[in-house]
Amino acid sequence: MTTEILFSSKEFKQLLSVSDCELMHMRVSGELKFVKKGNAFLYKLHDKQLLLKHPLASQLFNWYQGKHSINIDNTPKASESIQSAKMMLETILLPISNKFGDINITYGFVSAKLNKFIQKNSASGTYPSIDQHAASEFNNANNQICKRHGLACDFIVKGYENKMDKVMVFIVNNLAFDKVYYYGKNRPIHVSVGNENLKHLQVMNESKNGRRIPGKRAYGHKAKELAEELQHEC
């Protein structure tokens, strides 16, 4: 179950790069679809390409800045990767942001160049062939980096740093996702979208030596049951 995303005038001006006056003329002329709530106009998305201008898109692509000593163009190149990025924004990140507030993406899209850098300098805990962070990008040998396609990102919601179970339950119950890796109430959530959207919830536990190991998992309706179970755990 997903709800159509509506954008405020401020957000839509930013996406369209227009002034207040230009936005009004576009609305009056019938170029834009909108609904009115009180004195506010809320706009419907007429071109999904605009999603790539949203601040969350900038986070999705530029998350690495400040974490890695490399300055590159980390935007997707493959057309399928671009489609997956738009899907991630429309069906996952924007609904979560609208429900809970500001999102901080801790690990987002990884281009071929960024992947090469990470694997050389800080590869621990990364699995580029399966983790979906590289979407459908190709390496220098023209081989697909990740065989699963789709796109993944890890994030935490500001104000919910110790309540990420609530965000996990919302995703599982309401959004079209491929995989969710749940690390605990006080850890970022890994979520992906994909061609199949398996609705796979995977619990990740921590071993005595600090390694992450798979725990319980479930799909579809069973994933909803597992999500509720996890929320009520101490």
What does this structure look like?
The chain is an alpha+beta fold and 234 residues long. Helices cover 34% and strands 20% of the residues. It is built from 7 helices and 9 strands. Strands 4-5-7-6-8-9 form a 6-stranded mixed beta sheet. A hairpin with a 2-residue loop joins strand 2 and strand 3. The protein is globular and about 60 Å long. The mean pLDDT is 94.
Sheet/helix structural class? alpha+beta
The total of beta strands comes to 9
Provide the spatial order of strands within the biggest beta sheet.
4-5-7-6-8-9
Helix count? 7
> How confident overall, as mean pLDDT?
94
Euclidean distance between termini CA atoms: 29 Å
Which residues sit in consecutive blocks of at least 5 with pLDDT less than 50? Answer: none
SSE pattern, N- to C-terminal: EHHEEHHEHEHEEEEH
- The value of Rg in angstroms is 19 Å
Overall geometry comes to globular
Q: Estimate percent helicity.
A: 25-40%
Classify the beta-strand content into a percent band.
Answer: 15-25%
Biggest beta-sheet profile: 6 strands, mixed
